[in-house]
Write a structure and sequence with these properties.
The chain has 227 residues and is an alpha+beta fold. The protein is built from 4 helices and 10 strands, in the order ααβββββααβββββ.
Length: 227
């Protein structure tokens, strides 16, 4: 009888051990399944979001192109700038480089009399570099070259801010998506218009207009590389 009781006790212990092992195994399976479900959900969320930095050239909507432009974090461009004033018209060829959040660098290629002039801005400090030139004179005669509104990142910043108050507009025209900012910045500038080529997703030109709709500044993007 003692043997029977002992055997019964052993069987009971083995049964409890098997049940505990089964419970642990089931718990592990549940944890693994939970982790897999979470991973799948994260992947679905990740892939459902459009990566605007790597937006592919193709049949993109206006909203996708707008978001792509507004999320530009850096670029290099060769631009042709035409500045109109009451007295005359001046043309410049510049190399522009921008790194987010606020570092801008411009190098003048033309005209010859200010060739090599470098203009750097880090969000606080404006630095002019050219040992051949009288910098005070350059600042006075070429003030539009260092005007913040001449840069693509300035347009992006203005557009992003004014979109909240419905002072922006975006529409398609032929092969371009056109983004507009309407605000009286000062007595001269009241509208900025950016043209984006739908085929390349690159800005092609930027217009800065006065209160009468005339072009104060016309910027042509001959070359631009967005990073």
């Amino acid at each position: 009888m003692f043997r029977k009781l002992r055997k019964s006790k052993i069987n009971k212990n083995e049964h409890n051990k098997l049940r505990n092992n089964k419970t642990k195994y089931t718990s592990k399976i549940k944890i693994i399944l939970l982790i897999l479900i979470i991973a799948i959900v994260i992947l679905l969320i990740f892939f459902s979001k459009k990566d605007y930095k790597n937006l592919k050239v193709g049949n993109n909507s206006i909203e996708e192109i707008e978001e792509y432009i507004l999320n530009i974090s850096s670029y290099e461009a060769k631009i042709e700038v035409t500045v109109n004033s009451n007295k005359n018209t001046n043309k410049y060829v510049l190399l522009q480089n921008y790194q987010k959040p606020n570092r801008t660098r411009q190098i003048v290629l033309e005209p010859r009399n200010i060739e090599g002039l470098e203009i750097e801005y880090d969000g606080q400090n404006l630095i002019l570099k050219n040992t051949k030139l009288n910098l005070e004179k350059v600042y006075g005669n070429y003030e539009y070259l260092i005007h913040n509104s001449m840069t693509l990142e300035s347009f992006i910043s203005n557009y992003t801010e004014l979109k909240k108050s419905n002072k922006t507009n975006i529409y398609e025209k032929e092969n371009n998506v056109i983004m507009e900012v309407e605000e009286k910045v000062n007595n001269y500038i009241c509208k900025e218009i950016l043209y984006i080529d739908k085929n390349t997703l690159k800005p092609s030109k930027l217009l800065i207009q006065d209160i009468n709709g005339g072009n104060l500044v016309y910027i042509l993007y001959n070359e631009i590389e967005i990073k």
